[in-house]
């Protein structure tokens, strides 16, 4: 009769457990192969368009030559990062990106939450659906169209709606697009108008999932509609709000190229140029591929750090986080 030591039994058990685990994963994939097959296009899309292009970040550390490729271009280390940090306009671009991103969080992020709370209070469904349709439509317009509407219909010194009322009140027309002091407000306002309706979808779905018994119990206790919003609705959707806020902070440096570019001009460039427009101007128009990749990589790293820090603070202070 064979006698096995404790260690031999342990190793044998671990090996059998590993095989069993592999079989379980394989069995699970085979069992739900239809679901995995349906998820395959999405996974391939992320792999091809999100992860594989990250390999191109290596050119930030090279003097990339379009004809020599990755393997033939010389490695230069942090040369482009150092040059960018010493660039005279670096702090101006960094300041613009941070300030506009901060304004976007302060003013744009709460807007769909407030609109969702207001829409939730509308009891007449036909009127509610009409309002939702009207506020959703701008999201499906391109930024070129949005820019044309703002510059030619709303802010134009001759035919703009705002200047029309200013003339009625006896004031001189304002040339909004020629004054750098207005450009940041224009960027934030246009973004709110475009995305506020579409942004309410998540919050309306979260509000719909609240137990109606909570509202009935609070009504019995004499709570008003406004009181119910603050003690039931907002606390119930707070986890969703935190997750959406963390996702927004993760894109803090990624304000959007099109959103700025359609309003950008030589007059307001000092107050409006951000990393995305600078990368386009230098990288694509100036063909400085390695340098612009280094700038983009710097922007991405800053955004990642902001996301990790905000997620850590949210987990510690509010016990809610993305991961």
Would you count the extended β strands for me?
Answer: 0
Sheet having the most strands: none
Top-tier CATH class of the largest domain: Mainly Alpha
What's the gyration radius in Å?
Answer: 27 Å
The end-to-end distance, rounded to whole angstroms, is 52 Å
CATH superfamily heading of the largest domain: MetI-like
Kindly estimate the percentage of residues that lie in beta strands according to DSSP: under 5%
Question: Pairing-aware structural class of the strands and helices?
Answer: mainly alpha
Order of helix and strand elements from N to C terminus? HHHHHHHHHHHHHHHHH
Give average pLDDT, whole number.
Answer: 86
CATH architecture of the largest domain: Orthogonal Bundle
Question: What this model shows, in words?
Answer:
- With 323 residues, this protein is mainly alpha-helical.
- The chain folds into two domains: 6-47; 78-317, MetI-like fold (Orthogonal Bundle).
- Helix content is 71%, strand content 0%.
- It contains 17 helices and no strands.
- Helix 7 packs antiparallel against helix 10, helix 13 (238-250) packs antiparallel against helix 17 and helix 16 packs antiparallel against helix 17 (289-317).
- The model is unreliable at 1-9 (pLDDT under 50).
Offer a quick outline of the entry.
The chain is 71% helix and 0% strand. With 323 residues, it is mostly helical.
